């Protein structure tokens, strides 16, 4: 028996290749129903003690258990929780997590595109509110905006005139500056539409 916490903070119970969602809590027990109840009309269920350590009773399922599905669900939640702390691209986050997994788990996790969309939604949910102007930008900036990722140990913010009305932030890595210093010509471009409106 294993408790899986979803990225939305809900608890799921995994046992013998089946996944259950919490249905009802009493003073001493919790009733869990098969997660395929709606899709497959499955009446499978378990009742656990209130601490979710012991299964008191079970009701039979109308389908076989699938441990690969359980592992894929755990992997999906791991990917989504990693995405909130990682500024990497969704495709790279997924590739890093899937590379060591059995092919059956990779197949059970579903389409990569839907997982990428879930990662983008998750990332949007943790993006801070856009500042109304330079005075709304915190000082000092949080570490996730001043260091390179995923290492988090290399400085990326090289200049901040924090205490003026015309706030100026300059970001660059040591490697990037070294390459610029060696180049004979600089070409500039930018995705200005993705920058905050007041910046």
UniProtKB/TrEMBL annotation:
One of its GO terms (molecular function) is zinc ion binding. It comes from the Eukaryota. InterPro entries: Znf_FLYWCH. Residues 130-149 are annotated as: Disordered. Residues 4-63 form the FLYWCH-type domain. Keywords: Metal-binding, Zinc, Zinc-finger. This is FLYWCH-type domain-containing protein. It comes from Dreissena polymorpha.
